[in-house]
Amino acid sequence: MAFGEIPVGVLFSKSGSYAAIGQEGYWGARIAIDEINASGLFDFRFLRVDGDPKGSAENYAVEADRMMREAGCRHIIGTQTSSSRKEVLPVMERGRGLLWYTTPYEGFESHDRVVYTGACPNQGVVPLFRHIVPESGRRAFLLGSNYIWGWETNRIARELLAGCDGEVLGERYVAIGDENIDHLIVEIREKRPDFIFNNLIGESSYAFLRAMKRLAKEDPAFAPNRCPILSCNLTEAELPILGAAAEGLVSTSTYFETLDTPENEDFLSRLEGLRGPDASISSMFVGPYEAVWLLARAIEACGSDAPDHVLAELCRRPHRTPLRDIRIDPQTQHAYLQPLIAVVETTGPERIRSRFRIIEKTSGPLAPDPYLVHYDPLESNAGSSGDTPEPDNGNTPRLRLVSS
After folding, report:
1. Which of 93, 242, 259, 364 is most buried, most CB within 10 Å of its CB?
2. pLDDT in tens, the chain (404 residues)
3. Same domain? 247 vs 134
4. Distance (Å, whole) CA 399 – CA 401
5. Burial environment of residue 340 by CB neighbours within 10 A (0 to 12, 13 to 18, 19 or more)
6. What DSSP designation does 228 have?
7. Do residues 265 and 371 share a domain?
8. Number of separate domains in the chain
């Protein structure tokens, strides 16, 4: 079946307090669209329709509505925060479109108008805590930006700690973009946790990490090897902003630029000519990039860009992207993904060049479990492998971390 141009919305904040990751998402989708259009593999072309909500959750719905009503988009790649995703859901319902949500998130959602290709809790926060508690201890301080991601991810952290007789020494929130964090440093210094779980985003997170770097110089008890800072969402896109302030941070993701596979080597080599030799590639870039390729493969396979047909095809079998095959679970519309654990290392004469070194990973992609239905807290953080029951036929690798 031959097509003409298919409009695809690309909805990321390229300005505002979390612009660094928004730019990554935009470029990931843009480069994938350009590749697909130039590939000669498909009987259609994608017409990119851009929207910049400028970091305002309310603007996402306005932009999504414009894309669907005025430009005819039935598929929208993007939205970064959970608040912005929630704002867009009624628009997708009304227009019967499909939102491709590519950011790691707090889970506890499965919407029929969304394909979730970012990590959900059993692919992010759970493996991160399974790594850190045996290594560092069970006394945690929880931080978050004051919106859904921070609240819900910290709620899951509380449950994980409760399952191993851990303790939350403090739980604090600041407004998105707020850099006034001195009171957090004072409290952390007083309570002396074993580790800090940082769910701040954007400028708030950068200010906090810089302040913790200063604290570690004053008091070695807060050095990364003694009081590590954890993140589920800090990426390569933000390392140049932070420099040495990110050193020692432990993060989880389903992609790091240092992933050692032939496919990733080819991918990075190809992108070097498009983004320049010094541009890092992060999961915030890769998620939208892969989503666009998944969309193209599904349209090709089912012969239609109708969202319901595309979704049915996605859930029928895995589809190939330039980096890996991706399978979408038909029950939850979430992707099977491989969790990776990495630590930030800084190098160079002024210790300003940073990279993630992968230290643990699962043996393969994990079945998504956004509601943690199959998660047993009694097995989680006691240092065991914690095999996780799978919601499918049992052929997916279980949650067992192995050294990289």
Report:
1. 259
2. 456 899 999 999 999 888 888 999 999 999 999 999 999 999 999 999 999 999 898 999 999 999 999 999 999 999 989 999 999 999 999 999 999 999 999 999 999 999 999 999 999 999 999 999 999 999 999 999 999 999 999 999 999 999 999 999 999 999 999 999 999 999 999 999 999 999 999 999 999 999 999 999 999 999 999 999 999 989 998 998 899 999 999 999 999 999 999 999 999 998 887 776 667 899 999 999 999 999 999 999 999 999 999 999 999 999 999 999 999 999 999 999 999 999 999 876 555 578 999 999 998 999 999 999 987 654 543 333 333 333 333 333 333 333 34
3. yes
4. 6
5. buried
6. -
7. no
8. 2
**The last residue of a domain, from among 326, 354, 372:** 326
Helix (H, G, I), strand (E, B) or coil at 176: coil
Residue 364 sits in a domain whose CATH number is 3.40.50.2300
For residue 241, the enclosing domain spans 122-257+339-403
State pTM to two decimals: 0.90
- Distance between first and last Cα of the chain: 45
| DSSP per-residue letters across 119-174 | --GGGTHHHHHHHHHHHH-SEEEEEEESSHHHHHHHHHHHHHHHTTT-EEEEEEEE
**From the centroid of its chain, how far is CA 329?**
18
